[in-house]
Amino acid sequence: MAKYTIELTDVEDKALRIVAYTPQDWIENVVKERARKSIDTIYKSEVERMTDDPDITTIPADKNQVVLDADIKSAKEIADAKG
Fold first, then answer.
1. pLDDT of residue 73
2. pLDDT (tens digit, 9 = 90+) per residue, 5-41?
3. pLDDT band at residue 83 under the 50/70/90 scheme
4. Which residues lie below 8 Å from residue 47, measured CB to CB, with a gap of 6+?
5. How many CB atoms lie within 10 A of CB 66?
6. Which of 19, 25, 35, 67 is most buried by its number of CB atoms within 10 A?
7. How far apart are CA 9 and CA 54, in angstroms?
8. Is 18 helix (H, G, I), strand (E, B) or coil?
9. What is the pTM of this model?
10. Phi and psi for 60 in degrees, rounded to 5?
11. Phi and psi dihedrals of 69, rounded to 5?
12. What are phi and psi of 20, to 5 degrees?
């Protein structure tokens, strides 16, 4: 499991407290929701790819496994390839 740390200035912390019960909860919710959307996108794309490939006879039932097995490039890899 990956763990990330973020530092906020006192001003940023105060500003987030106006819109969130706690900044930690807000940050976690935003990041997890964004990840969920990416998981759905990857899953849909991979199932479509596997369905269209006559050599693939089974598709994993586990959505997380489909995403983990997906041969996709990260945003960093794509940007670095562009130079």
1. 95
2. 999 999 999 999 999 999 999 999 999 999 999 999 9
3. confident
4. 59, 66
5. 19
6. 67
7. 54
8. helix
9. 0.84
10. -55, 140
11. -80, -10
12. -135, 150
When the pLDDT of each residue in the chain is averaged and rounded to a whole number, the result is 96
CA distances from 74 to 7, 10, 19, 39, 77 (A): 24, 32, 31, 13, 5
Of the CA atoms within 13 Å of residue 46, those in its CB half-sphere come to 21
- Residue 14 has, within 13 A of its CA and on its CB side, a CA count of 3
The length of the chain is: 83
The phi-psi region of residue 46 (left if phi > 0; otherwise alpha if psi is between -120 and 50; otherwise beta) is alpha
Question: Six-digit token pair at 33?
Answer: 């929701």
